[in-house]
């Protein structure tokens, strides 16, 4: 969510390799693909806590 907002604020420059925002956005998307989205992570934590 935060990285998507940052890209929107910076416009097209935010998606280029010349700007750090693009790097953070790609890392966030890769992490989401590898480990699941926020809702999935919340479910895992709730299960571990026995909720």
From TrEMBL:
Keywords, sorted A to Z: Flavoprotein
Q: Which organism is it from?
A: marine sediment metagenome
Q: What InterPro entries does the annotation carry?
A: AcylCo_DH-like_C, AcylCo_DH/oxidase_C
A Gene Ontology molecular-function term?
oxidoreductase activity, acting on the CH-CH group of donors
Q: Which residue intervals define the domain Acyl-CoA dehydrogenase/oxidase C-terminal in the entry?
A: 2-49
Q: What protein name does the entry list?
A: Acyl-CoA dehydrogenase/oxidase C-terminal domain-containing protein
């Amino acid at each position: 969510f935060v990285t998507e907002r940052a890209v929107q604020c910076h416009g097209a420059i935010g998606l280029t390799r010349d700007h750090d925002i693009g790097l953070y956005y790609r890392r966030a998307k890769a992490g989401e693909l590898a480990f699941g989205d926020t809702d999935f992570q919340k479910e895992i934590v709730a299960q571990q806590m026995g909720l």
